[in-house]
User: Fold Peptide ABC transporter ATP-binding protein from Labrys okinawensis.
Amino acid sequence: RALGKRFSIGTRFSAEGRRTVHAVDNVSLTVRRGETVGLVGESGCGKSTLARCLVRLYDISDGQLIFEGDDITGKSLAELRPLRRRLQMVFQDPSASLNPRRRVGDLVAEPLRIHTKLSSAEIARRVAELFDLVGLLPDHVMRYPHEFSGGQRQRVGIARAIALNPDLVVLDEPVSALDVSVQAQIVNLLADLQEKLNLTYVFIAHDLSVVRQVSTRIAVMYLGSIVEEGPAEEVFATPAHPYSQALISAVPIVETTPGGMRKRIILTGDVPSPLKPPPGCRFHPRCPVAQDRCRTERPQVRDFRPGRKVACHFPVAS
Ligand code: SF4
Ligand code: MG
Assistant:
């Protein structure tokens, strides 16, 4: 939690795959050690792209990625190697990210074989320890991914991701592919591991009730940009950006909040293509409170109040 120990990503970058996809633009996100930043937004808004940029699975063509004060934006794969172990990712669909022909013990051992000089016996011991940490049984190591349930497969994915004691784990919708009954178990496991291992998370989800449970801070993305950021409880209680308001209004309120029911705001229209975003505020075609200025002038991210940022000309004051 010490200041300066943080991961941040600078503005205006795009991911380069087979073609350049400007899916993420004008984003600045700082993640402090030990916290969980929830990244939310509709599908297609660039959450996964940003996640892959954070762990440098995508190249960043324009912008800056700072890791503990070090600019790692332009580092080559070889230069990134020592860092790679400190930045890990858990994917939405564990079946797609686990090689079906390898035993799960092997899959969890793989990062240890690649990145450490541990002996086979030490690796076996570490794998057993990891299985125990994520709630799998010792004899599970000999099984293949298809012999497991979705939740167990995600436990394997998590064991793999934490094998090297990473500093940052980016969780890209880690529970959305799971049955609701299993989701809570995995969320609790992630919370336990965070506490035990002092992990830092970026937790991506479109399900806001999950994000609310786990996040210290949240960042709301719309069409490739972060439109609001702040302490999770504050943003949930008093969202300032009209888009956050609409997203949050769709979350069922479990506890009784003072002031009673929240009015549900239904957004109309589809999310426009990030390759051809609307001029001015990217949200203006769908914004219930848009004004003339919004159609021409793009709002910059600014401090709305201490610890809270918003990119809107007319944030909702409450
Ligand atoms: Fe709505 Fe204007 Fe704010 Fe954009 S800048 S969210 S259009 S009020
Ligand atoms: Mg995604």
